[in-house]
Design goal:
The chain is an all-beta fold and 686 residues long. It contains 3 helices and 37 strands. It binds copper (II) ion.
């Protein structure tokens, strides 16, 4: 590729042009330890969850996303953090597991969807940034994350086995086995994982109430009656327990059972390229209590809560090719879920197991979507989509809980509400002629139905129920570029949005207690409240191949936002952060180091935030150094090791939850991150 002078519109081009002289083939960099995931095409980030990554993630899905610029995780303990993308948490970030919607059961958000995801049992994690897709379910305002398993056609019979074992500081050990027997007709796959960790210590040596253990097992059987048909039945169970440093209870049961059936048919006619269908069922049973994983304060009673959720869903999509340049995906998806509660304030006297479950809410969503991709010129394409969702929710609570002890009649008891919501996007992608770069610009609109945690689990400003809170509408501009050439790979993405009826969770509201006179007995209430907001930010990644197996990697992520209604900072936005890494990799040996620098966050709004957490205070800056090494003695074997937070720095992420007072533990302001963590991982693939 020749460089011409007339097209250097981007500052970055001037910087990189001396290196862009060689052949156009991109050298694939297969890191042994992933510290950064690059954006490889416009708004799309894909990563292999089996590759070791640093910092060492917890067993669950949230921590795996941390290596993608723009993601942060709300820490509550050792695991089960809530993922945030560009400062947007909860149902603003859609999470799909093999195409299935996973919704946790815990009204207090102990179990975000990622708590039930065991990433090493998947083949890929894909992130689509922004409201720039409509075919992966509703509500992906900030983006969508898809944990997927491969379904490549099988040509030879045989076994695929992946096994790994990990040992780390704080008594951490993980074991994974994933085995597939396949032939061109049948595939049988079984996966089992086990992960556990004791309480970790932060950089100051303070013990954090954070131990956990988790187990999962999954089997799937696939049948390929002919080259173009595929049928798969899959099912799985998982279970576990986890200590929480940010609250008065721990999770003593995280039970998930799921069953799914998928069918796909390819090359049906010259017009119909493909039909994909799936149906699924899942059941989540969760228990939190104050006695299983911690000692009870003197005189306190054993309390337990046992929510559950049942979800049924399905999807049908067909891919049409109306010409060589124009492809359509048309389809529908449906989902129905029902949540119930039961609990005991005195487990010794009245065990929750003997109480009847009370359904408190039902949700139903039916969606229709159409997405198209038109390569109208060899170097340019237009992608567009439109979807409509019909939502129905029913409030079945008779009573609303006011704190631990008090309750009052639910003002919206028995009510139903319905909404039809629309989402759309339009994006232009252009391959530049003079540079090996792709530019994109997209405009997206997404309307999000309020979720269980916003409607059912919160009050509103003037009522004990937020059941009738408005749907949230975001309109966002996404622009950026992806650059890929011999020695340099990189991407830059920018976004700006306006959000109408942003659902703010505000815990600074004072209300009179029931029966108390106004102003006499006040209680603090957590309400869901609609505001207008805006946010904007950027992510960047650059990998520069240096001479002789050396490379350097840099990333940057920043987001800012404003609560326009109250003229305050939009809360729960992570501060500016950057990473710089230097790595050696000769495909047999690798070693590297990475510095992560987190700026101070002074734009805060204490007491306000989202369903995952609220701002506490301003947060100081932090710098964390991590080191790693790898050895690949053969194709099948890989050993990796690392020291995370090598300088044993004591710090907390800005979006962390506040530390709670727990008997036997020192209370910290936030839930601090782990101190120096050594880990060693062995994996075997054949
Ligand atoms: Cu819970």
């Amino acid at each position: 590729m020749k460089m011409t002078r007339k097209t250097l519109p981007l500052a970055i081009a001037a910087l990189i042009s001396p290196m862009a002289m060689g052949e156009d083939s991109t050298v694939p960099v297969e890191e042994m330890v992933i510290t950064t995931v690059r954006m490889s095409e416009p708004l799309r980030v894909v990563t292999d969850p089996r590759q070791p990554r640093q910092p060492l993630p917890a067993h669950d899905g949230a921590d795996y996303l941390k290596t993608i610029p723009g993601f942060s995780v709300v820490r509550k303990g050792g695991a089960d953090g809530d993922p945030i993308f560009r400062g947007m948490a909860g149902s603003r970030l859609s999470l799909l597991v093999d195409g299935e919607t996973v919704l946790g059961g815990c009204g207090h958000r102990m179990d975000p969807p990622t708590a039930y995801i065991f990433p090493e049992s998947f083949d890929s994690i894909e992130v689509i940034k922004g409201p720039q897709s409509v075919q992966h379910g509703p509500g992906n305002a900030a983006g969508v994350v898809r944990f997927e398993r491969n379904r490549a056609p099988v040509t030879e019979s045989g076994w695929d086995v992946h096994a790994s074992a990990l040992g780390a500081s704080f008594g951490r050990h993980d074991e994974v086995i994933d085995a597939t027997y396949k032939n061109p007709r049948f595939q049988l796959r079984g996966t089992a994982t086990n992960a556990s960790q004791n309480d970790y210590r932060d950089g100051d040596g303070t013990r954090i109430h954070s131990s956990y253990n988790r187990r999962s097992a999954q089997v799937s059987a696939a049948w390929t009656p002919d080259q173009d048909s595929f049928l798969e039945l899959s099912g799985g169970v998982s279970d576990g327990e986890a200590a929480y440093a940010d609250r008065g209870m721990d999770g003593s049961l995280f039970d998930r059972e799921h069953l799914g059936l998928k069918a796909s048919f390819d090359n049906i006619s010259p017009l119909i390229n493909k039909i994909d269908t799936q149906v699924y069922y899942q059941y989540i049973d969760h228990v939190m209590d104050n006695y299983s994983l911690r000692s009870l304060p003197e005189g306190a009673k054993q309390r337990a809560m046992n929510p559950d959720r049942e979800t049924l869903g399905g999807r049908l999509a067909t891919t049409l090719r109306t010409s060589a340049e124009l492809e359509w995906v048309l389809g529908l998806d449906v989902q129905h879920n029902e949540h119930s509660n039961r609990g005991s304030m005195n487990q010794m006297m009245m065990p929750y197991q003997q109480m009847t479950r009370q359904t408190d809410a039902q949700f139903r969503q039916n969606g229709l979507f159409a997405e198209s991709s038109w390569d109208f010129r060899p170097d340019q394409s237009i992608k567009a989509g439109l979807r409509a969702d019909h939502w129905t929710a029913r409030d079945q609570r008779q009573q609303v809980a006011l704190g631990m002890m008090d309750s009052a009649p639910n003002p919206s008891a028995g009510q139903s509400r319905s909404d039809t919501l629309y989402s759309a996007f339009l994006r232009h992608e252009m391959q530049l002629e003079a540079l090996p770069a792709m530019l994109y610009a997209g405009l997206g609109h997404n309307e999000r139905f309020p979720d269980y945690w916003e409607m059912i689990n919160k009050e509103s400003v003037d009522s004990l129920s937020a059941f009738n809170i408005e749907s949230e509408k975001v309109t966002q501009l996404d622009v950026g570029l992806v650059y890929s050439h011999n020695r340099i790979n990189g991407s830059f993405s920018l976004f700006y949005n306006e959000i109408n009826d942003f659902i703010l969770i505000d815990s600074t509201v004072m209300k009179p207690t029931m029966g108390g006179m106004m102003g006499m007995n006040m209680r603090s209430a957590t309400v869901a409240r609609s505001i207008d907001a805006r946010s904007y930010g950027a992510e960047a990644d650059v990998t520069l191949a240096l001479a002789d197996n050396w490379r350097t990697e840099m990333t940057l992520a920043s987001v800012r936002g404003r609560n326009k209604t109250d003229d305050r900072a939009l809360p729960q936005l992570p501060p500016l952060e950057a990473t710089v890494g230097l790595h050696y990799d000769d495909r047999r040996w690798s070693f590297g180091g990475m510095v992560r620098a987190i700026a101070a966050q002074n734009h805060v709004d204490p007491g306000r935030g989202n369903i995952a957490g609220q701002d506490i205070d301003i947060t100081g800056s932090a710098t964390v150094l991590s080191l790693n090494a790898g050895w690949r003695p053969s194709e099948a074997l890989l050993f990796t090791a690392g020291i995370d937070n090598a300088l044993d720095h004591s710090y907390a992420e800005h979006v962390s939850r506040a530390g709670a007072s727990i008997p036997g533990f020192d209370q910290t302001q936030r839930v601090n991150e782990p101190g120096r963590t050594l880990w060693l991982k062995a994996q075997f693939t054949f």
